[in-house]
Amino acid sequence: MSYTIAPASERRIAPRFRPTVGTICRIRDRNQVALVWNISSTGISMMIADPPPAGTVLAAELTTEGGSVLPLTLHVVHVKKADTGDYLVGGRFEVPLTEADMRRFLAPGTAG
Fold first, then answer.
1. What is the DSSP letter of 20?
2. First CA to last CA across the chain, in angstroms?
């Protein structure tokens, strides 16, 4: 299996924010869970042990320990192996998040 190595340049057009503690992405198509690393209105970066290849379109949902759940479609843009052995996966939302939706997943004190 091959993975696209992400260039160092910025890919997301929207500012990135730190998610609230316990924010995960449930990948329904693959029955997997990924830890959300950062979030913007247009996409997420997440850590996962067994990543889908770049170009994959996934049925997923963002969830928090506080009970917020948001179903979404995620397009895998890049996959990069991390020093930990896990993979950092960048995904673009098919439909950008509204400001209200995004606020549900931001860490306290995070502007957004």
1. P
2. 37
For the record, the structure tokens of 60 come out as 């997923």
Spatial CA neighbour of 93 closest among 48, 59, 51, 53: 59
d(CA 12, CA 43): 8
For the domain made up of 24-97, the CATH class stated in words is mainly beta
Distance CA 70, CA 64 (A): 10
**What is the DSSP pairing of strand 43-48 with strand 87-93?**
antiparallel
Pull the structure tokens for residue 31: 């029955």
* Position 87, amino acid: Y
Its pTM stands at: 0.83
Strand partners, 77: none
Over residues 56-110, the pLDDT tens digits come to 999 999 999 888 899 999 999 999 999 999 999 999 999 999 999 999 999 887 7
